[in-house]
Amino acid sequence: MEYDAVIVGAGLFGLSTAYHIKELRPEDKVLLLERLSGPGQGNTAKSAAMFRSFFYSRTNLALADSSIEFYKHVQEDLGFDLRIKWIGYLWLLSSGEYRSLKPVLSEMSRRGLEYRIYDREYLEKTLGLRAEVSADEEARLMGLVDVDYGLLVPKAGCIDVDALVKFYENEARKRGVEIKYGVEVLDLLIEPKEPLGLPGEPFIWQEARVAGVKTSAGVFRAKKTILAAGAWMPLLLDKVGIECHIKSKKRQIFSVKADKEELKKLMHVEGFNRENLLPFLILPRPKIWVKAVPEEGSFWMCYSDDFPREFKVEDEPQPEGEFYEYGIYQVVVKYLPQFKGCRPHAAWAGLYAYCTLDGQPVIFEEHDVMVVGGGSGSGVMKADAVGRIAAALYAGEEYAKLYGGEKFKVSRLGLRERKVEPEKLVI
Ligand SMILES: Cc1cc2nc3c(=O)[nH]c(=O)nc-3n(C[C@H](O)[C@H](O)[C@H](O)COP(=O)(O)OP(=O)(O)OC[C@H]3O[C@@H](n4cnc5c(N)ncnc54)[C@H](O)[C@@H]3O)c2cc1C
Fold first, then answer.
1. Distance from residue 193's CA to the centre of ligand 1 (Å)
2. Among 41, 44, 214, which is best to mutate for testing ligand 1, by the most ligand atoms less than 8 A from CB?
3. Does residue 379 have its Cβ closer than 6 Å to ligand 1?
4. Which of 207, 218, 262, 413 has CA atoms 20 to 30 A from the CA of 190?
């Protein structure tokens, strides 16, 4: 039996793609394969689950804003609780950084994007922040800079990723997507477009195509094979000489209990959002983030290190104790002394599947195989748009209709006619 589409990977990208293909082509036979025992257990499950609709790049903004609006619609209109909390993002900035960002921020404000600026005194008072770290010799040695401003973006927050995964899985199933868990794709099935039935096909004089997948549960044939295998994408594509421009880096999250009064106070700080929760807080340099997780009574902390962190595809990346101990902790405690003595009670690591071209998703097709990946650390907040664009490419349409009606040219995220506006708000 041949499927119209076989999708590999039930992370958010694969699930959203499956759902949107059925929205566009309800009659098509779609199979979704996942090697793990359930949906969203790859890097989707490792995510910090944060989103923001605040980017300079129109590409970034279109993908994130339309997806966020869709999630809001799912929660508010369809009544599927995604536990969205509009806690905002709060970047702590030095005066130098603020000065260099000002022209970009003014332009964004002209485009209607909302933000608020807080001064140092307010941040010190509300957050118990130690803004003037330059007075501390150790902090100076570490190259830490004083905080002079806070930039708060209100159209931002967190979502329950498990609930979002469930939503797409349910809706995809309801529309007839067949899903098989515990099935690993081992190889792409390569065949000539016009088989002659000769042993050893395809020969160099034949035009070859991807005709499906060879898996731990047998062969599944497809008119279109769609890879949404996240960080593992190159493992399948390198073998057939297709460059997907995706490379992976380990990212680690450390969870610290809010078991002291001063930490509880920081978690439930008032004045930044209606939830009276600490916004997603990003330190000046190194850009460590701190997320309040009230359901767990803990804070999560993470830093996306670049050089010399290796590119590596791993099945079970491990968090490194010393990364927290000698890295994250040393910086956080300088700005937020409330964390003095805090050690993580839990930690995990996942992989960012970076698109090495420009940090935006890649969605393209070659030889009847489609690639949908390169979330680059912001795939949760862009997954709905990515699914719609992938579905439009599958259906042979030039434009995808994002949630809210914006038309997005499919080739903008492809390889040949790629057109991604650079992100000027690099903070
Ligand atoms: C630590 C961390 C924090 C993050 N924080 C955020 C955040 O705050 N906000 C945000 O927007 N994004 C964040 N992300 C990124 C986000 O999680 C991803 O971009 C998003 O979930 C999309 O993932 P995906 O579907 O491409 O990949 P995955 O979720 O990894 O899905 C790929 C799936 O393919 C399966 N697979 C792979 N190979 C095979 C095979 N051969 N056969 C069968 N199945 C296969 C895997 O098992 C996996 O389930 C974070 C990521 C990490 C690691």
1. 32
2. 44
3. yes
4. 413
CATH superfamily of 89-153+248-355: D-Amino Acid Oxidase, subunit A, domain 2 (3.30.9.10)
**Cα–Cα distance measured from residue 37 to residue 15, given in angstroms and rounded to the nearest whole number:** 15
34 lines ligand 1 (CB under 6 A): yes
CB atoms within 10 A of CB 295: 8
- Ligand 1, atom 21, lies closest to the CA of 44
Is 90 exceeded by the pLDDT of residue 426? no
373 lines ligand 1 (CB under 6 A): yes
CATH for the 2-75+161-245+357-413 domain, from 3.40.50.300, 3.40.50.2300, 3.50.50.60, 3.40.50.2000: 3.50.50.60
Q: Which residues contact 348 (CB under 8 A, 6 or more apart)?
A: 46, 252, 253, 319
Residue 157 and residue 88 in contact, taking contact as beta carbons nearer than 8 Å: yes
Query: Which atom, in ligand 1's list, is nearest to the CA of 252?
Result: 1
The CB-based long-range contact list for 143-146 (8 Å cut-off, 24+ gap) reads 143/285, 144/284, 144/285, 144/331, 144/334, 144/335, 145/94, 145/96, 145/97, 145/284, 145/285, 146/94, 146/95, 146/120
Is this prediction's pTM over 0.70?
Answer: yes
CA of 353 from ligand 1 middle (Å) equals 7
- CA gap 24, 249 in Å, rounded: 34
Cα(427) to centroid(ligand 1), Å: 23
Average pLDDT value for residue range 246-265: 98
Confidence category of residue 1, pLDDT binned at 50, 70, 90: confident
**Average pLDDT of 100-123?**
97
| 173, β-bridge pairs | none
Calculate how far, in angstroms, residue 228's C-alpha sits from the geometric centre of ligand 1: 9
Coil, strand or helix: which one is 176?
coil
Domain residue spans of the chain: 2-75+161-245+357-413, 89-153+248-355
Q: Report whether residue 150 contacts ligand 1, using a CB cutoff of 6 Å.
A: no
Would you say the CB of residue 41 lies under 6 angstroms from ligand 1?
yes
Establish whether residue 359 lines the binding site of ligand 1, counting it when its CB lies within 6 angstroms of any ligand atom. Answer: no
**95: phi then psi, degrees, rounded to nearest 5:** -65, -35
